[in-house]
Amino acid sequence: MASNPETLASGLAAPWSVAPTGDGGALISQRNDGRVLELTPAGEVRDAGVVPGVVSGGESGLHGLALHPDGADTWLYAYHGARDDNRVVRMPLLGDPGELTLGEAEVVFEGIPRESTHDGGRLAFGPDGYLYVSTGDAQRRDAAQDPAALGGKILRLTPEGDPAPGNPWDNAVWTLGHRNVQGLAWTSDGTMWASEFGQNTWDELNRIEPGANYGWPIVEGTAGREGMVDPIVAWTTSEASPSGIAAQGDTVFVAGLRGQRLWTVDTAAGALAADPLAVLTGEQGRLRDAVVAPDGTLWVLTNNTDGRGDPRAEDDLLLRLALAPAT
């Protein structure tokens, strides 16, 4: 991995998610003002539109973005805080690269609990074509263990927002026992991974299996408790506070907020082949999201302007790092 990242965009305000558009550009969400910005193929940053109904406050606002093709059309999915809940909406993506705009929004899924903290918010389409949604426990700790509740879960939906076929409880829930999942990705063998904020002691990277219980609020970190799945990696909260994650080949990249570093985790053969390695430690401040772009480089969002960081004059940034070829 290159040690000197290239800056693709600067002057971003509390960015949360980046979704490459496949043409050298990307869409970027800004949590506090509900705006979606376009990084054009020419390297300029412009407004693509505002997601309607975003109510920001605390950790809630405009969160994850995901793009999904539907025939000749492309939909932009967004997770956001509304007045009384968190929800997923989708909007047709209109126009050509460099002048993209958002069409009329429609609600895909609503009723996810909202609170000042623990709001989840990551979206990702899996290899199976279904939409995965991460939710936080919204300070309702016990709800994370209830398969009928939406808080503290990973959800699995059709693109239209219905529970996906084959879900373990015949509802929208895919896994339970989560505190606040903020990263979702798949390695090349199809394994799903999720990053999770712990409370005071341990943050986690988990291998995700349908119907599994990841322990919260009964356990945090590695506990070896029967019926509950231990994390593959556990970090102290000062080392990580993990948000967005990305995967290339067998490697998972984990963006750390409080930890102010990018962790690289080799998951070869389904187990850790080596201790996780950290790069960018302290160099760029808080890191919110990571994604592998179509050209094989890694794009990373800094997050120093969200009220918890120490912003520099150019913050926040979208950075690009070169990666070694996937194995």
List keywords for this structure.
327 residues, mainly beta, 4-stranded antiparallel beta sheet, 0% helix, globular
Furnish the topology, listing elements before pairings.
Layout: E1 6-9, E2 15-20, E3 26-30, E4 35-39, E5 45-50, E6 62-70, E7 73-81, E8 86-94, E9 101-102, E10 106-112, E11 123-125, E12 131-134, E13 154-157, E14 173-175, E15 181-186, E16 192-196, E17 202-208, E18 233-236, E19 242-248, E20 251-256, E21 262-266, E22 277-279, E23 287-292, E24 298-302, E25 318-321
Antiparallel strand pairs: 1-25, 2-3, 3-4, 4-5, 6-7, 7-8, 8-9, 8-10, 11-12, 12-13, 13-14, 15-16, 16-17, 17-18, 19-20, 20-21, 21-22, 23-24, 24-25
Offer a concise description of the structure.
This protein is about 0% helix and about 40% strand. The protein contains no helices and 25 strands.
Measured between the Cα atoms of the first and last residue, the distance is 14 Å
* Helical content (DSSP H or I, runs of 4+): under 10%
Instruction: Please tell me how large the radius of gyration is.
Output: 18 Å
Q: Which series of helices and strands comes N to C?
A: EEEEEEEEEEEEEEEEEEEEEEEEE
The shape, in one word, is globular
**Main sheet, how many strands, which sense, barrel?**
5 strands, antiparallel
Structural class: mainly beta
Fraction in beta strands: 35-45%
Can you tell me the residue ranges where pLDDT is under 50 for at least 5 consecutive residues? none
Total DSSP helices: 0
The number of strands is 25
Mean pLDDT: 95
